[in-house]
Amino acid sequence: MTITDPPGGHGRPAVPSAAARALARCIAVEPGKFAAAHWGRAPLLSRAAELPNADGFTDLLGPADADELLSRRGLRTPFLRIAKDGQLVPAARWTGGGGAGAEIGDQVLDERVLELYASGATLVLQGLHRTWPALIDFARDLGTALAQPLQVNAYLTPAGSQGFATHYDTHDVFVLQVDGRKHWRIHPPVLPDPLERQPWGGRADEVSATAQGPAALDVVLEPGDALYLPRGWLHSAQAQETSSLHLTVGIRALTRYAIVEELLALAAADARLRAGLPFGTDVADPDAIEPELTETVEALRDWLLRADPAAVAARLRQRAWPAARPAPIRPLAQAAALAAVAVDTRLAPRPGLRWRLDPTGDDKVALRLFDRVLTLPAGCEPALRALLTGTVARVGDLPGLDDADRVVLARRLLREAIAVPAE
């Protein structure tokens, strides 16, 4: 796990204080201890009194904010799920058109939500890292600290209700208790470190049997408490005497199996591995397959010993970078800034933007981003690095270019949403 990074390093500056503060809100131990003793290994309970925010997590999303999302924001599926008695309620029961000028048929109907919630259903607000400003910023900062893409959901559970049966997630989570109290029972994994393709439903009997045994952690979360759970750990949660609101931050970490998948994809370049099986081979006969398996394993081993880390890293980058969008931009303000660029204009790198600069060998430099690659003159490289690492803000101070080229580059970076006006 990476908690901090050294300056530079292909677009990975040192973790800023905002990222460190976001992580500190979730764990009551030092980052190094969290990485060594808990990350991917064991749950961690952090009580509100041990965490820095006296007001808990209400600044991120409170009950009134959830009500606003459910009633006044034109919310649509899949940004809401509703569960009752351990089963998802079909969306057709709580969605419909929004009236004149908003006839789209999958909008959340607040009166139907009220009916279900009042009868004990749990509401799950999904994708809040894309829709609620405070959580957009928090998820970006926490994702920077962890070097992983995140998702944020909110769970609103009526008093005494339990939304889901005991289960496990295929990603690590932070549970942040916002309002009310919720009783959590945590059990060890039936499948350590499950992949996304290995959900708990395929092991429902094992999960149920393990849940009948003694819990590894049996605790009631109070407002302001935080709980870290590695993927695979079984859990169930029940609201207590009042309704409960908690946030679940899902950490979508890459695994070593992802490296295996990319290695296999690259292995298609090897002619021995592309070769067909001999004519007439009975693939159901172990004796017929044995020599082919031996040859294939040898060919794969030989290829793996020559695997290029740079090629693997490039493929993993294509997986990871699009999963964590940079900070939102304001298109109208950005367009206005674009029209007014001058040498005294001050710019900043777009927060959360992942980038990499690579020479192309033809007097050009490639700026690789999460969704595209820009090719620019090689002479722009010093200016690009200075701006994207945050060491230079004033356009007239960008190194290696004259003023006219500095302005041209600044306009390009604003238009491409790589830089933003400095505040």
Describe this structure in words.
GO terms for molecular function: histone H3K36 demethylase activity; histone H3K4 demethylase activity; metal ion binding. It comes from Micromonospora haikouensis. Keywords: Iron, Metal-binding. It is a single chain. By secondary structure, the protein is of the alpha+beta class. It folds into three domains: 17-251, Jelly Rolls (Sandwich), CATH 2.60.120.650; 256-319, no CATH class; 331-421, Outer Surface Protein A, domain 3, CATH 3.90.930. The chain is 32% helix and 20% strand. It is built from 14 helices and 18 strands. It has helices spanning 17-24, 31-37, 63-72, 110-118, 128-131, 133-146, 204-211, 256-266, 271-274, 286-305, 309-320, 331-339, 381-388, 403-415; strands at 44-46, 80-84, 87-88, 95-96, 107-108, 122-125, 150-157, 172-179, 182-187, 217-221, 226-229, 234-239, 244-251, 347-349, 356-359, 364-368, 373-377, 419-421. The strands form five sheets. It has an eight-stranded antiparallel sheet with strand order 1-11-8-13-7-6-2-3. The longest helix is centred in the last third of the chain and has 20 residues, at 286-305.
